[in-house]
Specification:
14 helices, alpha/beta, GmrSD_N, 3-stranded mixed β-sheet, 7% strand
Length: 366
Amino acid sequence: MIDLNPSYQREVVWPETKQIGLIDSIFRNFYVPPVVFAVQKDEDDEDVFICVDGKQVCTARLTSIQKFFDGQIPHRDTKTKKNFWYTTSESSKGQRLEVPDFWKEEFSKKRITCVTYRNLAPGTEREIFQRVQLGMTLTAAEKLQAISSPWAQWIGELEARHVTVDGGLSHVLQWDTKRGRDYQNIAHMVYCCDGIPKQQLLPTAQKVEKWLSRVDEPGQQFKDDIERVLKDFWLIAHRKELNEGFTKIQQRVAPVEFLFVGVLLYTLRGASLEDRAKAIHILRKSVRSEFKDIRNNSVVGKAMWKHVGDLAVNPTSSGIFGGSSSSGKGRKKRKVDYSEVDEEYRPEPVRSLGKPLKIRPRPTKT
């Protein structure tokens, strides 16, 4: 059995021009990089071949070959620039040039090289995935997915339970989930929540990669709180009486908005669903009135943290829009103390378990 979908895989991103280029490479005996498999045993002790860069190599390449056989893509002659089709329908025979039978037989005899690894540790398998660059450079989001750690595994489980599942957040929200961006968004959100109450963190690729690589386990209370945040996120986005923060704003949810909606729900997890839904609407409308370009940068991030702080004091405050605040004119706003909404103690991240101590044996008397 071949498994094309290990958790760290990226999406298929081959355009048709690249598919046609592969067919030409095979015809002309050019070097085609091998398909890389990690072989593991299943519960029946049968070999399972896991494509280490599966969706790019196995799916994209094998699909390209199949599409050529089926007449969906042509072979393009590099000299004449003419297209030749392996299969032509009756209606297109006069319009399309067909590959001669001799070259059809030659093409069908070609072989793709496969490389297999056995008994790999999960971390080594992911490291191979990171290093196999066959056509498309990994995005920052895909690099996060390739990290092997307790926190990375947990983020992957959150993605599977709340985003990619049928009817999950990938379906009820208008947002970009391609090439690992949904995993990245959840990781950024959890990273920021992990800093509360001590820090107002702003995610960068380097900081989040370092944080996600930590070797300690996430605390159970923190895991439960994040689980609740994502469940409530889905409820608010799904229910018509609560989802004005997503339906009344035409633009799709930007990554930085997803991140800070999660932070807001985490901060307000003691408030009612109705109040949190209103707070989401206020947050998105406020930041979009301030910025034309909603990107994950320090300027937008700091503004988001300010709004989260204001909404932590009053989740339904209209003062953020420039109207009258419920606290009264001229009254000074109380600065939010995040320790009031996060009582769990969380230790500093453990970057490495270190080397085992060497103990010198005591000499024995004779």
